[in-house]
Amino acid sequence: MVPEVKKCKVDQCFYWMDGECRAHAILVGSGSAACHTFAQSSMHTNKHGQGEVGACHVKDCIFNDYMFCHACDDIEVHSVNNKAVCATYRPR
After folding, report:
1. Distance between CA 62 and CA 44 in Å, rounded?
2. Is the alpha carbon torsion for 56, 61, 64, 70 positive or negative?
3. CA-CA to 10 of 20 to 30 Å: which in 21, 45, 70, 78?
4. What is the pLDDT of residue 50?
5. Could you tell me how many helices (H) and strands (E) the chain has, helices first?
């Protein structure tokens, strides 16, 4: 099962609505746990649904298994230094 984005606190993203990620799937980082699906916008989508983790390129995360996220619980995305970041990331 693919983890969902349980909570998104990045309200300046196009895919954000009412604390949820409405992107179909997100891509998490390469060298860091940044959400590369983040699209800065003052407008927000009206699409309903819950975003999922499509792929994770953060090799040193304990939840990464061949670029698939296997976090037991759903993930959270937070804003850190004006960047959207996977807050569920844990180093190996």
Report:
1. 32
2. negative
3. 70
4. 87
5. 0, 9
